Amino acid sequence: MATHITIFFVVIIIFIFNGHTNGLLHGLNEGQVTDTTMHRVDCKGDVEMEDDAWMMVQKSGNQFVVNNQPFYVNGFNTYWLMVFAVDNSTRGKVTQVFQQASDVGLTVCRTWAFNDGQWRALQKKPFVYDEDVFKALDFVVSEAKKFNIRLILSLTNNWDAYGGKPQYVKWGKEAGLNLTNDDDFFFHPTLKSYYKSHVKTVLNRVNTVTNMTYKDDPTIFAWELINEPRCESDPSGDKLQEWIEEMAVYVKTIDPKHLVEIGLEGFYGPSTPNKVQYNPNTYAQQVGTDFIRNHQVLGVDFASVHIYADSWISPSISNDHIAFTKSWMQSHIDDAENYLGMPVVFSEFGVSKKDPGYNESYRDNLISTVYNTLLDSAKKGGSGGGSLLWQVFPDGTEYMDDGYAIILSKSPSTSSIISRHSTRLTLFNSLCKWKCHWGCKKKHEFDGGFHFLDEL
């Protein structure tokens, strides 16, 4: 009886603290948190762990873990943080977006750790860096830690924004190389050496604010090889596959501690003809990417998928977009479980205000669809590892909005949905931790008490 009373009061305290009793229960789809939800991660003996230790995110099977406890991602994208941090007049926006994101419970941010040969370039040309810009990236990393936000750092771009693949090819041509296509980036040895040099430079960087080497810093959640890679000159996917195989291993040789992901959009390719039906259009299977094959590579730790129904299917808002989002997500979650044995993060998703028929209610519906699909996976111990909104901006940056920006202070309904999802994940992770902890330390004493929590 005493055990039941103890558990009851712990749960009540959590509910009061979060202030979302009804939302939490509804957020778990009015179902039970069953035993299968909790036993995916084994405890390590009787070692006492600090709940909020700032340690590396790792993976155990198809789940992310911190301190051997489940860690589900609720995050966002803000790509321009490094560039804004260079100038004192805009540096405060970095702090502001982290503060506002933290206030609604967001825990991971994806941003660029590259700016190749452009305005305020980090890499001015191969092997040459602007120290002031690097110090700005140092600030971004250190500032994220202050707000308990981890970073996914992308190392280059498929597109020409911030330089990326086209800039590497331009550098190659300036060096006298006979290059004919931007896709030469993926197989020309000199261009690959340029990219590897950048990887090595960033990973070995000693942060001038924290004095910690990037490759040792738990603030960094993962390295992303390249944002949205495509190799349209080779629809077979062989060229891109070889590049991924080489670069994933290369990153791991420098930094075996951090997770690595590719940065794919998630399109199915030639290796899985039975899966191309899930692609948003026929063009998607001809861009040289191959979701399952690409992720079956040594050194790749988790899968990435993007969701842009308004770009891929039609710009006009319709219910078809929601249906596509559900099937797209479920297909990739199933693949991550059945073929890959790893978590999958939906690392970009959103809808543009510029789309015909757009309204904030639709955006909220889309976000809720993504969140609920991930919660369904989490309750089953599945591979749905989390999601990252594209994109969260602070106040005063509307002039940079590409249509997808969410300014939390001006979007109360959206902010409420994000905050509620954060609270649900916090409770869910807490339940996982309690179950694991009690299973190790006081198995017999707490068995009956935890059944009470299962009934939630």
From TrEMBL:
Please state every residue range assigned to the domain named Glycoside hydrolase family: 56-390
EC number(s) reported in the record: 3.2.1.78
Keyword set for this entry? Answer: Glycosidase, Hydrolase, Secreted, Signal
One GO BP annotation of this record: polysaccharide catabolic process
Signal peptide residues are: 1-23
Chief location bin: secreted
Q: Which GO terms describe its molecular function?
A: mannan endo-1,4-beta-mannosidase activity
The record, for Gene3D superfamilies, names: Glycosidases (3.20.20.80)
Localization recorded for this chain is: Secreted
A single GO cellular-component term from the record reads: extracellular region
One Pfam family, short name = GH5_mannosidase
Q: Which reaction does it catalyse?
A: Random hydrolysis of (1->4)-beta-D-mannosidic linkages in mannans, galactomannans and glucomannans
Family, as annotated: Belongs to the glycosyl hydrolase 5 (cellulase A) family.
Question: Would you tell me the protein name for this molecule?
Answer: mannan endo-1,4-beta-mannosidase
Q: Which organism is it from?
A: Lactuca saligna (Willowleaf lettuce)
Its organism's taxonomic lineage begins at: Eukaryota, Viridiplantae, Streptophyta, Embryophyta, Tracheophyta
